[in-house]
Structure of Lipid II isoglutaminyl synthase (glutamine-hydrolyzing) subunit GatD:
Amino acid sequence: MSTESTLRIVWIYPDLLSTYGDRGNLLILARRAAVRGIPVETYSVRSDQPMPSTADIYLIGGGEDGPQALAAQRLITDGGLHRAVNQGAAVLAICAGYQLFGHSFFAKGTKCPGLGLLDLHSDRGETRAVGEIRGDIDPRLGLPPLSGFENHGGRTHLGPGVAPLARVTAGIGNDGQTEGAWNGKILGTYSHGPALARNPAIADLLLRWATGADSLAPVDDTWPDKLRAERLAAAGA
């Protein structure tokens, strides 16, 4: 796809899973890499195209039930994403994309097989979770509190092979107690906003994982910090 020194970012199936503006995560990652002098190539891989297995970061977004089920079927059949994860790629999975990374999820009332890349499963909640979400991120990741907007009908149940991304302080997330999950270099969350616009520290974590860097040069986060402060206040922080 490119030279070894170039950071390769793949946006998975934008034709199926791009309902809530999650393309912003791709733009933010590419920008935060570029301003630090890291060469970047981005790829939008549609559902009728083979999934490359040699990229560094993979992003998958939210969507409706039908496209979610179709995306899972095609990713399972293709196998490229599994190969990429096995080779150490970093992943950010949002909402419907997060659910399909687990063992199973429900779409249009039907239980569907997931990718099995995270030890979790999702079913339907009694009420829809809509509104601001905030949480204290797993301290092992060394990140500030999570900020986002959630809009989903699912409830996600974590197995022993993953850790919660955050403990909920406002909103619902997985189940009203925890939000998202992570294991290895895979992060999953219900947070829209886009997630990386509200949480640039997560973007930098993905960049560090992908490049192997212990730290990154600082960038001017004046405007992201203002956005975070506003939305955290709206969530009652």
In short: The longest strand covers residues 120-137. Helices lie at 23-34, 65-78, 80-86, 96-100, 195-198, 200-211, 222-234.
